[in-house]
């Protein structure tokens, strides 16, 4: 029986003149490796990579795209980081869009092509030049598809989605093709809002959940565009009561100019409209309890009571949710029907139950409070400002469908932090479930994502990406260690990286220094002695470095770091995720700072302007 090397050399002899014949020798070598690599020392991974790469080249050259794509998928099971296989799968998806990629959760063949081409460049940067035209073609097609799908979508006003019952509860399903950037739910009508402790409860509007950016924005009427729905005399009412309004505003604004309640000083409103809408509920059911919470937090800190880390945010949100129940806000009859996992939540957050009962002073029954705690822990969505920083949470249960969006680790929708809505991030095909991500760590491997979701939301994720799990080559690549790595390298460095990066991110801007960049780069160098550069922990450090470089004003390094991060995100998920848009915006800002003639070695640098167009990221002013 010939060896793998002998078969490869036979293929090499006819490679130029007869690629079809050559492919057969290479395929025999691949089959020999699959059958004998655990028994035959001559069946090496290096020989496998050479024969597989040559076979892919030959099959693509002779137009056997379906067979080429199938081989790419097959060889990635044996070698998850064979970059050439990713490159050829991407090329095949461009040549033959009929390849079954929609079921893989990519939306279109062009989106799949871009993802696999980026994986090739991420795993082997030397492939950037040979795949550059392919990436350009994928981006061009995606922009064309976007226009076509948008035009088709707008030809009818028929419903585009529906709420459906599934094995994991209700969800939202597309009933016709939906283009990217389509608003599919508003997040400006939450049932209740909970603000974070860092802002003293005033990080977002307690009525509509808009982030309170600064005193100028807080003083403006953020809902002036919504007044078109009024009965027509809103302007006259405002004019007639001008003096009363000014007097009330002077009392209701605190020293920083934020609208709020002078009695508790723990709520904020983004507009007079929200203040008027929410005032009665706040005065009747919230204000006294907010003041009690403030005193309780002082006592907890003074006596060093062992309270759960998120006690403040849960207590605050529990106050506003119970208030909404008592005020019979829209959706009050559905709140307690949401999944709650009461026993698990209360037990995991002990002593949250007794503390909450103490806060409410027996004014509400413990079973109700425990149920509300569970509902909030399992269903509330984070509210972020435009930079992606969390400022609070919202519970959505009204007339819209926001509360029905389930989690997926490969979502096709996302929360727009600027306009506070749920939008599609890519083309959504009919029959697809429409999903968002409950956690930001979508670059983590399957096991860690599932652990985080189980700890935070009390369910084991069974989304298509998690079900596929380690069967997916790139999922394996995200946590692969070098052959020469120390034992348990990923486990060893996970906690080190999380602690180091969390400490840096927690600092105020004034405290970030060049020393942080030096220490993070030193940590990254150490990681890369044990882990592949595309390991999720390497990305974690790069993400932190981007923050440090931005603070230090190091535009060149910040540009490279942002584009490296963007490449990683393109490898994992298709579509206009907000994190991608943020990285592109930061990269464009860096370029503006560097001025004409700026250069960058990052793989996506040649495509930055096209990506900005595709993902609708505006040039900086």
Automatic annotation (TrEMBL):
Domain of life: Eukaryota
Domain SET intervals: 189-439
Cross-referenced InterPro entries: H3K4_H4K5_MeTrfase, SET_dom, SET_dom_sf
A family per Pfam: SET
GO cellular component: nucleus
Region (Disordered): 215-258
Bias kind Acidic residues: ranges: 215-233
Record protein name field: SET domain-containing protein
Source organism of this protein record: Leptomonas pyrrhocoris (Firebug parasite)
